[in-house]
Amino acid sequence: MTSGQETGVEDMFSFFEKKYAALEEVNQPIAPEQLAVLKNQLDSEKPGATPQSQFNYAWGLLKSVLRHDQEAGVKILTHLYHSVPSMERESLYYLALGSFKIGEYAKARSYTNKLLGKEPENTQFKALSLAIEDKITQDGVIGIGVAGGILALGVGLIGALARKKR
After folding, report:
1. What are the extents of the domains in the chain?
2. Model pTM greater than 0.90?
3. What distance in Å separates the CA atoms of residue 153 and residue 6, rounded to the nearest whole number?
4. What kind of fold does domain 10-133 have according to CATH?
5. Which of 5, 72, 77, 65 is nearest to 32 (CA)?
6. Per-residue pLDDT reduced to its tens digit, 62-95
7. 122 in helix, strand or coil?
8. What is the mean pLDDT of residues 49-68?
9. Three-state SS across 84-114?
10. Residue of 143 and 163 predicted with greater confidence
11. Which of 24, 32, 74, 166 could crosslink 98 through cysteines, CB 3.0-4.6 Å?
């Protein structure tokens, strides 16, 4: 990792990548040169870049190891989702992946639920939904453990202070 700019979720992704193939694509980093090609294509079409070029660049940004790139990719996909009906399905799927990758699990769940609402038997959407639910559950268990540890520490400190005052 370099200077705190990377997401810090690489270990989490390696676990989920082995268990959930749906996450594998977005976890494969893109070479900076490849991202530059996508950016150059987008820039060459300005001011009216095509939705496909915008989508391709957003996809590349999601595959970056830099969190600010991933967040920029999610922003582009959000715009495409709301403004380009023909790209709604693809944008929504990659919004779910991108939101998962940057740790916005509630948003990822919401996007996946929308996808499953339209295509309830889609195995790719089901797998992504399962990965999101597993991560939310895992984080909840860890959160409960941390909260329990803090509570125990607080009770211990209060007990120690009470004994000291006697």
Report:
1. 10-133
2. no
3. 32
4. 1.25.40
5. 65
6. 999 999 999 999 999 999 999 999 999 999 999 9
7. coil
8. 94
9. CHHHHHHHHHHHHHHHHHCCCHHHHHHHHHH
10. 163
11. 74
